[in-house]
Design goal:
The complex is a heterodimer of chains A (168) and B (129). Chain A has a single domain, classed as Phosphotransferase system, sorbose subfamily IIB component (Fructose Permease, 3-Layer(aba) Sandwich), CATH 3.40.35.10. Chain A is built from 7 helices and 9 strands. Chain A starts with a strand and ends with a helix. In chain B, 47% of the residues lie in helices and 16% in strands. In chain B, helix 1 links the parallel strand 1 and strand 2. The longest helix of chain B has 15 residues. The radius of gyration of chain B is 14 Å and the shape is globular. The chains are: A alpha/beta (168), B alpha/beta (129).
């Protein structure tokens, strides 16, 4: 199983993913990794229903998603072009910590919430988020924010995170 | 009166409601909201708030894109709600039909009429029939 996009997006499956990235990357699977949604058949069905029929979809808890990405799920191992989605940095970091190899992580959407400051119009962060991003960088991951293909890509390296932290 | 919510990306919904009022005059019970700047969870919460405050007896939610975040947020925010329909592909014909017929039809009849009229409005103008 090969992720062609690993994306943090608190809207999970939506137009930027299915149309924007989907048309460019031609995924054969969208894998949504989230414990709450995976445990709620209604939520899982709602999100799965928004995926085009030509693309398979799997909604798994984070640990199960990690196993699938380590090719330990026989039903999913054959997928070669996977868009991986988590709703927050913590879940993406949990996948890394559970042995999932990711070279790049796309920060697509972290919308405003109380206590968070704007990094980009669609990316709001707090100190906890920045700490998780730094841990990801130590895993050797390249982090960048980019909403859609062709859109502006903003690197989230140590310097950018430090500049952001100074504004908090 | 059956209540309506137009839930869209950006200001599409708000502008559509304005145009409905330009055509029909002041309209009650038709509100607009947006996913702008919101997570899926926050947009779903806005839907739940609209249901509680404005449509406790149900209504119709119009969304712009079947596969978008408004669609999932509408469904998640309306979980368990009775007498509610979520219709995708909102267009002006859809909203005009809603406003024109919502006091004369029951919800199911209204929804069918809305979908029929909206589909009829998507056509190649001037093409032979």
């Amino acid at each position: 199983m090969n992720p062609v996009l690993a994306r943090i997006d608190d809207r999970f499956i939506h137009g930027q993913v299915t149309v924007g990235w989907g048309q460019k990357l031609q995924p054969d699977l969208i894998l949504l990794a989230n414990d709450e949604i995976a445990a709620d058949p209604w939520q899982a069905r709602v999100y799965a229903s928004t995926v085009p029929p030509s693309v398979a979809v799997a909604v798994l808890g984070v640990s199960d998603a990690a196993a699938a990405l380590r090719n330990e799920n026989a039903d999913l191992a054959h997928h070669e072009r996977v868009i991986l989605l988590t709703g927050n940095p913590g879940d993406m970091h949990a996948l890394l910590a559970q042995g999932v190899a990711l070279e790049r992580i796309n920060v697509g959407g972290m919308h405003f919430a109380s206590g968070k400051q704007e990094f980009l119009p669609s990316v709001y962060v707090d100190r906890d988020d920045l700490a998780v991003f730094r841990t990801m960088l130590r895993h050797g991951v390249r982090l960048s924010a980019q909403a859609v293909p062709g859109g502006r890509e903003v690197q989230m390296d140590d310097g950018a995170l430090a500049a952001m932290e100074a504004r908090l | 009166m059956i209540q309506g919510l137009v839930l869209t990306h950006g200001a599409i919904g708000a502008e559509m409601v304005k145009v409905v009022e330009l055509i029909m005059g002041p309209v009650e019970g038709l509100r607009a909201d947006s996913n702008q700047g919101r997570s899926a969870r926050d947009t779903a919460s806005a839907v739940a708030t609209w249901l509680a405050d404005h449509a406790p007896d149900g209504g119709v939610i119009f969304i712009d894109d079947y596969g978008g975040s408004c669609a999932s947020a509408a469904c998640l925010g309306a979980e368990g709600a009775e007498n509610l329909a979520v219709i995708s592909g909102v267009n002006l014909a859809m909203l005009l039909t809603f406003v024109s017929w919502r006091e004369d039809l029951d919800k199911d009849e209204l929804v069918q009429r809305i979908v029929d009229k909206a589909r009829q409005a998507v056509t190649v103008v001037g093409a032979p029939r």
